[in-house]
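_Backbone structure tokens_
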Amino acid sequence: MKEKFYQRKGFLPTLFTTVLIIAVAVITDHYKTLFVHETGNIKIFGGLGILLAFGLLLRWKYVRQILGVFSLIATTGITFHIFNVDKEFILSTFILLGGLILISYFLIVSKSIKSYIGGK
């Protein structure tokens, strides 16, 4: 009997990472005033990130590496942004940084996601 996709090893961490990526993309797109002034601009992952997040669940080739690079770039950018942010945005920016660090960890280091993506 063929194994269901949700019974594979590493499905739950992959699903958690996908939800985090979609949440970061939607929140930074629609609620940017949590992180910058109204005239500012911040967008992490965007529409391409949401598409790649679904590709992560569908086990597309190289999607883990692409999203890993995107998340590392975003983590670096938000880390530099923390040094220049106003006091009113500190808490939300640190929460965003924590989410990006979690995404980076799961995409780059987690063996369960590697086995889910690479498994046959």
